Amino acid sequence: MGGFERLVGQPQVVELLGQAMARDRLAPAYLFAGAAGVGRSLAAACFLQLLLGEDNDRRIVQRNHPDLLWVEPTYLDKGKRLTAAEASESGLKKRAAPIVRLEQVREISQFLSRPPLVAARSVVVIEAAESMPEAAANALLKTLEEPGQATIILLAPNVESLLPTLVSRCQRIPFYRLGLAEMTQVLQSAGHGDILSQPQVLALAQGSPGAAIEHAQRLATIPEELLQGLASLPPTLRQAMAMAKLVTKSLDSEAQIWLLDYLQQIYWQSGQVSTEVLQQLEQAKQQLRAYVQPQLVWEVMLMGAIGS
Question: Which CATH architecture has domain 11-174?
Answer without folding.
Answer: 3-Layer(aba) Sandwich (3.40)
